[in-house]
Amino acid sequence: MNTWDVAKKWKEMCEQGKNLECINELYAENIVSKEMPGMPGEQISGKQNVWNKSKEWLENVEDFHSSSISEPLVAGNFFTAKMGFDCTFKDRGRQQMEEVCVYEVKDGKIASEQYFYSME
C-alpha cells in the first residue's frame, strides 16, 4: 500500500472504532509513538507496546459522547489528520480534546506516529 492507501484505511478503521485492529494491520513491528513532552508514554516503540497503550486508553473511557477525524492530508510518505473527541474517562471525568496526528509510512506500514495537543 502507498501512503494514501494507508491513510484512507487508517481513517476508515478509526471511524469504525477498530483502533486496536488498525494497529495490528497497519503498524510496523518497530513503530515509534510520541506523545507531548511530559505525558505518560511520552515515547514508546514496538507494535505490542503501542497496542497496549491504546488498549489502556480505550479501557479508561467510560463513554464516548462524540469523536471526529478529518480527511487525511498526504505529503510524500507522511500523512496528518485532526482528531477530536468528547468523552468521559473513568479516572478524570469528561474531557474534550483536539489533536493533530502525524504519521510516517514506510514499506506500506505506519512506522511512526506523533500527537500534538494542548495540555490545559
Automatic annotation (TrEMBL):
The lineage of its organism: Bacteria, Pseudomonadati, Bacteroidota, Flavobacteriia, Flavobacteriales. Transmembrane segments: none annotated. This is Nuclear transport factor 2 family protein. InterPro entries: NTF2-like_dom_sf, SnoaL_5. Signal peptide: none annotated. It holds the Pfam family SnoaL_5. Residues 1-117 form the SnoaL-like domain. It comes from Winogradskyella flava. SUPFAM superfamilies: NTF2-like.
